Amino acid sequence: MEMEEARESTSFRVLMFPWLAHGHISPFLQLSKKLTQKNFQIYFCSTAINLCFIKKNLGENSSDNLRLVELHLPDVPELPPCYHTTTKLPPHLMSTLMRSFQSAKASFSSIVSTLKPDLVIYDSFQSWASTLAAIHSIPSVHFSTSGAATMSFFYHQLSSRRDSGIFPFSEIFQRDYERDKFDSLVESNRGVAEDFAFRSFELSSEIVLMKSCVGVEEKYLDYLSFLCGKKMVTTGPLIQESHHNYENDDDVGIIEFLNKKEQSSVVFVSFGSEYFLSTEEREEIAYGLELSNLSFIWVVRFAEGNTISIEEALPEGFLERVKERGMVVDKWAPQAKILEHSSTCGFVSHCGWSSIMESLYYGVPVIAMPMHLDQPTNARLLVEIGVGMEVLRGDNGQIRKEEVARVIKLVVLEKNGEEIRGKARELGKKLRAKGEAELDEALEELRNLCSKHNQQRSRRPS
After folding, report:
1. 123 counts as catalytic
2. What fold does the segment set 249-433 form as a domain?
3. pLDDT tens-digit series, residues 49-65
4. Which is the catalytic residue, given 123, 195, 251, 374?
5. Does the annotation count 250 as an active-site position?
């Protein structure tokens, strides 16, 4: 015990550097909070608009050991500071933001030089952060906020190291229309895609942090370790704390809606903060929810600058027809609070990795409707482990209302879905029972890496 206390009394300085998306910032922030509790000094680097969100998230409970550092992006006329984040970013500006972020190397190098941290923890889209850290003789660790099944699949597909063209786990695959979309994305963003798929892994110092759980993805973690030659260290699900002080009026309305419903009777519907449904997709999902005859909370999001109202965005008369059992929200919603509520029985999800982790943690089965990027392979993992079912699409990827209604009812209501519901409940219990055991081991790995680096630095001739 005394030795452990002595180890934790040594404070190390860690520079956290996530990509500019909420789905990446949130797990980086959760990891940062845990590190501060173990006497690490954290410097959290992002753009001004994201730092505003982070300040709000931290609230009055902010630790003195967590300091915010602004990253300056180059001035680009079509990319004002309000667009220095992927949240509500118009889709056509995503590549512009990516290029601007890649051009921020000088700003980040200055931050590293000034702070002289003991460790840099960087995200998937900026392997150059590792290169810059190495110039200053600072170790760096890649923290992947995506799952091991998806990352091992992409690594295999894009890395020149693969021995075979066939991914060894047939459960994880892309359909033809998904592969076409993915290949097009890779070709237009070749350098960034390679960063995401394997370069960020290869440059990581000794270990790679994965937002995952051994109990969920063990074989994929092992295969990814084999591919990149690094030890995979899991952090567990890193679930954001769900506070029950509902001070936000929107939160209060949502929770009151759930409180009035019977146990396991409400479906939660959300497609993340960065995917904006097309008119056709919104209509098919709306009609599918209507056909299911189930109660629901649906979060509908629009890109920044879009002036369309909820009434205009949805089929004529839809809100009136479902007003007794449906709630449509066009603002941020407290996802963790909704998923842990006893009235919630299923999650119609785009299958972003953070959303999947939350759903698994709270034992909620998933109606999978992946849209792009890593989401299709994440959805296949849910089907493989038996905690979700995918809404099948037409040959060209079109959503069909009858299929939406069919899968929702099967997963949350019908006898055929009992096994899925049961597996989701059991996995949730296991993850909650395990607590932060994996995270504690990950923090110890980071402490060991920092200690090792400091010892090597002290032995160098001055």
Report:
1. yes
2. Rossmann fold (3.40.50)
3. 999 989 987 876 677 89
4. 123
5. no
